[in-house]
Here is the input.
Amino acid sequence: MLHEGCNTVAVAGLGYVGLSLGVLLAQRHRVLAVDVLPERVDALNRKRSPIADQDISAFLNQRELDITATLDGDGAYAQADVVIIAAPTNYDPAQNYFDTSCVESVIEQVLRVNPEALMVIKSTIPVGYTAQVREKYGCSRILFSPEFLREGRALRDNLEPSRIIVGYPEAPAEMKEQAELFAAMLKEGAETPDVPVLLMHSTEAEAVKLFANTYLALRVGYFNELDTFAEIRGLDTRSIIEGVCLDPRIGSFYNNPSFGYGGYCLPKDSKQLLANYADVPNNLIHAIVDTNATRKEFVARRILDKAGWPEKARPVVGIYRLTMKSGSDNFRQSAIQGVMRRLQERDVELLIYEPTLTQDAFQGIRCCRELDAFLAACDVIVANRMNKELEPAKDKVYTRDLFSRD
Ligand SMILES: NC(=O)c1ccc[n+]([C@@H]2O[C@H](COP(=O)([O-])OP(=O)(O)OC[C@H]3O[C@@H](n4cnc5c(N)ncnc54)[C@H](O)[C@@H]3O)[C@@H](O)[C@H]2O)c1
Here is the structure.
């Protein structure tokens, strides 16, 4: 359990969430960072960040951090006052729910080697999950703290958090004190002193996370549907968005059209919230999930029109970058892949330009590593986000990136 002063913190999972929290807390606490992937553990012990994040790399090399990575979960958890669980919770389409098995395997491991330890789930989980696992394992020492970081800014978003939220059980009362101690640890690691701290019951904290991400998906979907309307009616999307967003209640931010919302979290979190709505009347939550497929189908149709298909047989459609955003270091659920799948169903030839890939093909699609050759070979080039290097072939480019951001 947590106490005032320096604690031993074990972190389970060295992805964006676990790594940034581990580094943040290692400024004042002893951190044992656990993963099942040897390459992540090795990298961290060599002071290299296993994920692309400038702040994490700088912290590892410039600060006095007490952090050791290990594959030995049993050994780390046995010494821990608190175990932070940052394992993946992928969406399982068969169950129509998050797959929480990685989180539960950590809980079971902790209960086996150190039943007195506090556990804090940082993974995103279904609404009601923490209460269920407390009941299932007969253990009240499990808190939930939603994580709001963005990939590419993972540590920065914990150094300058928009808010710190910790969810605790209704009983026993000492769990509220543990939640306060955990919130204080996150706050003392941050660089902004006035960060709002909210303590609430864990089910409400779980709802905060899913409703926040579903709102972001709604906002992306809204401006994308505005853009679909403008494209079909031959209107200037930029003028409409600028005019709409100058209303301060709407705001001129997070309004750049795209091929859909994507990344690891928004698609799965909005689907999970919809699953939690199973017996609750709604229209909007359903529509937020559905809008993404509608948008990608529309985008695919426009690309085919630009390529002259089907009049032109087998046009070459170039896919410029597989990442979701310009600065991203992974392809998880990127919207362009949904567009690619729809194009693959038609008789077109796809060609990928993705400089971070070393292989010759990705999911059966040819990759080209030479930018000039790529630009020359394609009839149309599809870019979720525009880049200066596409300028020489800009007449071929299909993008909806109007504001060069997000
Ligand atoms: N990526 C984000 O932007 C973000 C933001 C907020 C919340 N989240 C949530 O946080 C959770 C983790 O996300 P992430 O992006 O950091 O994931 P990630 O896939 O980048 O990292 C998860 C890590 O956990 C490791 N792992 C799996 N099983 C383990 C086990 N039993 N013991 C120890 N390590 C184990 C994996 O090897 C991997 O390195 C997810 O629930 C996600 O929804 C992610």
DSSP finds 14 helices and 16 strands in the chain. Residues 242 and 277 are 34 Å apart (CA to CA). The pocket of nicotinamide-adenine-dinucleotide is lined by residues 12-18, 34-37, 40, 73, 86-89, 102, 105-106, 123-124, 147, 149-151, 264-265 (CB under 6 Å).
